[in-house]
């Protein structure tokens, strides 16, 4: 399992995850009302938190994504990303369980009008994607705090 | 030698996490303060929960029913109301309105900060009576924007709101009159 923490792999995972979050953040930053509507559709957030979440979360995604791409504050960024992914996963799961189709809103709002069946199918796919990204965030977290030690030459 | 780790390392990560959140907050404040009307979002306030109670099937197109201020309009009802000159209110985002809307419809994008000003302008220019039918539409399907706009109009005294649930996709499918361009 040592190869999992090899710098060649960890750097690529970190940059890949960072890029995903940068790409996900930009459309939401460009359209806060659209993202507020996407969050509202989940019917999970308290009223007072809806607009602040729609305004701040995309910037947090961007900040964490850039931090990972640049290789700074890796554990903090990976921690936030893991927390966000857990929240998204939970929100999708709850709505899947109650058979309430929603647009993910993960990469901005979609203009396409979809049927309930298409939405539910997309939600399952989004759930799998979020779980995959969560694994990557865990990988970055595990590698981010690893002390850089050189094997002592004995 | 292994580096410090432990408590010191954890507090360092927490500090960095706090700084990332603070940075995001500052960026959000600046971005929102400089955003145009269609992008701006108030920090507090949100559309009321889509609690338009009991949307009923209409007894007759156009007629007001004080007991049912919000009723559904079938595609046929919507067309009849359009031909009778009833105002159409487009609850979708202003960008969607600009791409195409019911000819003559008013843009009242319920998710945009300019909604209050648009409602005021609509009332000033169209001068609708509280019992005259107002047809509200959005993207059809389970689009909730029409209901949210109805939620905003009920407290203003309107008692004959007609939700055209099939919405703009149905309107275009039926070949009804449409226009492109930003709101008037």
Descriptors:
heterodimer; A: 154 residues; mainly alpha; 5 helices; 72% helix; 0% strand; disordered C terminus; B: 184 residues; alpha/beta; 5-stranded parallel sheet; two-stranded antiparallel sheet; 6 helices; 39% helix; elongated
Helices and strands in order:
The complex is a heterodimer of chains A (154) and B (184).
Chain A: H1 7-30, H2 32-41, H3 47-70, H4 74-97, H5 116-144
Chain B: H1 6-33, E1 70-72, H2 75-83, E2 88-90, H3 94-99, E3 101-102, E4 106-107, H4 115-126, E5 134-137, H5 145-153, E6 161-164, H6 167-173, E7 178-179
Parallel strand pairs in B: 1-6, 2-4, 2-5, 5-6
Antiparallel strand pairs in B: 3-7
The chain-level structural class of chain B is alpha/beta
Rg of chain B computed from alpha carbons, rounded to a whole number of angstroms = 22 Å
Question: Uncertain runs of chain A with pLDDT below 50, 5 residues or more?
Answer: 147-154
Distance between the termini of chain A: 24 Å
Q: End-to-end span of chain B in angstroms?
A: 71 Å
Percentage of residues in helical conformation of chain A: over 70%
Q: Encode the helix/strand succession of chain B as letters.
A: HEHEHEEHEHEHE
Strand content of chain B: 5-15%
Helical fraction of chain B:
25-40%
Ranges of chain B where pLDDT stays below 50 over 5 or more residues in a row are 48-59
Largest sheet of chain A: none
**Beta fraction of chain A:** under 5%
Question: How do the strands line up in the largest sheet of chain B?
Answer: 1-6-5-2-4
State the order of secondary-structure elements of chain A, H for helix, E for strand: HHHHH
Backbone structural class of chain A: mainly alpha
Oligomer: heterodimer
């Amino acid at each position: 399992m040592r190869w999992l923490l090899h710098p060649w792999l960890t750097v690529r995972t970190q940059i890949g995850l960072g890029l995903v979050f940068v790409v996900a953040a930009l459309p939401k930053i460009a359209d806060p009302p659209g993202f507020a509507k996407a969050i509202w559709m989940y019917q999970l957030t308290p009223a007072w938190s809806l607009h602040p979440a729609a305004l701040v979360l995309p910037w947090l995604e961007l900040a964490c994504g850039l931090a990972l791409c640049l290789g700074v504050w890796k554990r903090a960024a990976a921690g936030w990303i893991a927390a966000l992914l857990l929240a998204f996963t939970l929100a999708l799961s709850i709505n899947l369980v109650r058979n309430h189709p929603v647009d993910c809103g993960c990469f901005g709002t979609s203009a396409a009008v979809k049927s309930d069946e298409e939405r539910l199918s997309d939600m399952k796919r989004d759930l799998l994607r979020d779980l995959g990204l969560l694994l990557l965030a865990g990988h970055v977290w595990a590698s981010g705090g690893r002390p850089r030690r050189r094997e002592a030459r004995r | 030698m292994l580096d410090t780790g432990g408590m010191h390392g954890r507090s360092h990560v927490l500090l960095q996490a706090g700084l990332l959140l603070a940075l995001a907050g500052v960026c959000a404040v600046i971005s929102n303060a400089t955003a145009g009307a269609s992008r701006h979002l108030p920090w507090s306030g949100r559309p009321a929960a889509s609690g338009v109670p009991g949307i009923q099937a209409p007894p007759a197109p156009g007629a007001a029913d004080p007991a049912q201020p919000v009723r559904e309009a079938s595609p046929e009802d919507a067309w009849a109301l359009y031909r009778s000159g009833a105002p159409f209110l487009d609850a979708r985002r202003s960008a969607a309105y600009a791409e195409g809307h019911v000819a003559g419809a008013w843009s009242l994008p319920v998710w945009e900060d300019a909604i209050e000003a648009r409602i005021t302008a609509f009332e000033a220019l169209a001068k609708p009576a509280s019992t005259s039918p107002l047809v509200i539409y959005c993207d059809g399907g389970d689009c909730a924007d029409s209901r949210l706009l109805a939620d905003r109009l009920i407290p203003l005294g309107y008692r004959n709101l007609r939700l055209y649930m099939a919405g703009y996709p149905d309107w275009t499918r039926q070949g009804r009159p449409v226009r492109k361009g930003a709101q008037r």
